[in-house]
Each structure stands twice: as structure tokens, then as C-alpha cells.
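Quick one: C-alpha cells for this chain, please?
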Amino acid sequence: MGGETGSIRLSEVVAALSYALDLTEGEPPGHAVRSCRIGMRLAQELGLREGTLTDLFYALLLKDAGCSANSARMAALFGADDHIAKRTSKRIDWACKFPAFLWSARTVAGNSVRRRAQRLKAIKDEGEVTRSLMRARCDRGAEIALSLGLPSETAEAIRALDEHWDGRGQPAGLRGDEIPLLARILCLAQTVEIFHADGGVTAAWGVARKRSGGWFDPSLVEVLGACLGDVAFWESLEHDDGPGWRPDERLMRADDTRLDGIAVAFAGVVDAKSPWTYRHSDRASMIAAGLAAALGAEAGALSDVRRAALLHDLGKLAISNLILDKPGRLTPAEEAIVRRHPIVTAQILERVPCFRRLASLAGAHHERLDGHGYPYGMTGEELDMPMRVIAVADVYEAVTSERPYRAAMTSEQALAILQAEAPTRLDAAAVAALGDLVEHRTGADDGSRAAVVFEGR
């Protein structure tokens, strides 16, 4: 494996990775891409200039970049699958009290009327907390856009995604023209996509007209109406062929700094989904890179290991927080869902041109040398050294971090477990290198390379 050369389109990378955000929101694959096509159709009808079109394009694809920030709290409040709660919330007018109450009553879980009533009361009492969670989601999405080198116009559109024309949106309660135009397009485009996917053009136009002047800028709804006669466009949304219009000028060099920035941003989306995995991907990548370097990996291989380790848990975005944050033992059905996440990771990465070759590497982090790992039961002959290194790094970081079902282990306890697994299940050389790095870290000054490896960014 080696580093990328030449140039790649930022639009291709972001469009492909937007499928990971669809998973977190509980939407069908391609939701963000289809929303992008609708939003760009509206923008072109408006005659927006090229630079503004580019800003809008990335805002539409990354509109849900902060979506994982409220997944855990939503699951805890409702006692329900956060994917279901997120998906159904987009199909009701949550800005109106009665529809919001009916939706909450249908969504909350509980094995008794009393338990459900307690949850509903807790949700009602969470008013300001809910606003804070919405702000965290919007702010996090804007931060990710900026971290990818996108302009402030893109970030501010994402930040104001859930603001409504009548001032009853979230999180700042902006009204009318206080809301950036690009954010108004985002709000309309994503809602139109959802209702179009559920009921076609008639359903999409119906909700747009009903919420015109409430959720949506009336002038934008008029623009949407002018687009309804473009039958070919609406039929094209049924085909998964990318986001349509693409900016020409957003070419970026596929150098280490840029690719690492993209990997770090999406690793952050994964780790934000659960409070128990805060910085797991980041730390696992630092450990894996340290092990690979100790084992003599060249620069290109080191980059691949680092990025694959950052992105190895992308598939967990498809798992409900009811499972990820469960304090007790998983049921067989829940365990089967968890065991699919490396497959989903690989499927997402295979969509991304510059990360495609990392798909098998990132997807193998739960495979074991004796063939008793998952999801494919690969054996030692099939697992190369980068795969073995990431597996060791993932285990070590996980067991030395607190989880809802157990306390964090000390480095000594973790090493004992890994050493017992070598060489039958885990690679002996990688485990030995880990032991050396941990020993060096324990006795090193704060500025030493070994210490940096384990502290993360």
C-alpha cells in the first residue's frame, strides 16, 4: 500500500462519505445526495452565482455532519432506537406542540403506561436541554465543514439548517431573512426529499405548501412549484447516480494532510455517537501508527494504517445507541447487529475513491488469526500485518477505556489479556511491540514520542 498521488475531487469524497451520515439519521442510503440534487435545482432556478452554488453544494452534502452529537441523548430520553426517532421526527411538524406531543407519545418506549408517561414528562422537562442538544448538533456540523477547509458560508448554512421562517425553529429561533439563504434552501430541500421518497411529487409539494411561511421561505416554495413540471428531474432522483451538479474548481491535492483531515473529521462523527467511545478512533489510530512504525512500516503503509484505524468504526453509525450504550449483555439479535458493523464500514469506504483500498483493511479489525473473529472468519493467512496491527490497537484502546458494561482496565491488565491471545488470535509481534511502547510510555518524559503515540491529538 502507498500514498495517493495526483488530484481528487473533494465533491466525490464528500458525496461518498455522506452515506455514513444517512446511516446516523436513519434515512435510506443516498438521502443527502438526493437532498443535494433538489437543493441545487432550486439554486439554479434562482440563478445563484457559481461560488454560492459551490458553498451550497457542500452544505447540502454535509448538512447532517453533526447528527451523531445528539444520538445518545435521544435514545436515552425516548428509550427507543435513535434512528427511528430521528427518521420519524422529520416527518412531523415538531415546531407545533400537538403534533410534537403525538409523535413523542408514539415514539417513547416503555413496558407500562406509567413508564411511558414518565418518559414523556422527562422529555417535556428537557426543553432547554433539547435546545442545547440541537445547538451542539448544528455547531458540530459547522465545525466539521470548517475543518475540511470549506468556507464560512457553508458552515453557517449547516448551523442554521433547522431554523424556520416563522422563528419557531432551532436552535437560535432565527426568523425570515435572519436565516441565511443557503440554510433556507437546506431546510426545504431535505424535507422535500423525505416526502418525495415516501409519496412522490404530490406528497413533497403538499408538505411544502402546508409549511410555507412556517418552516419555509414562501419565495423558495414558489421556486419549487416552478420546478414541478420537470418530470425527468424528479424521476432521476430514483437513480443513485450522484449529486448531479458538481463544482469545477474544488480540486484538492490528495496529500497526507488533506486526506488525514477528512479521516479525522469522520472519525469524530463516529466517536461522537456514544459518550463511551469518545476519541476511540483517534486513539486507536495513534496506537496503530505507533505499532506499524515499530514494526518497520514504510511511510505509505503508515498513512494507510492511520487512516484505516481512524475510519474502522464508520459502520457503528448504523447501530442504535440502545445497543451501543447498553449496560448489560447483548441479546443474540443485538450481537448480530454489532457484528455487521465492519461490513458496513467497508461498504462506505468502497464508495470513496481515495479510501477504497482501505475498505478491506478497516473492515478486518475484528478478524482473528484462528479464524474465530468476525464478520468473515478470516484466518492468519488472509490477514496481513496492517490488519493485525489495527486489530491489536483496537482491542487495547477499547479495554483501557470505560464502557457501560465494565470499568476501564489498566495498561498492565490489558497487556496481559493481549499476551494471552497471542499468537493464537492476535499477532505476537504486534503485541510485543505494544508492550515495548507501553513500557517506554510509562517511563518516558511527557515530550517523548512514545507518550505522544498514546495521548492522541
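The chain has a mean pLDDT of 89.
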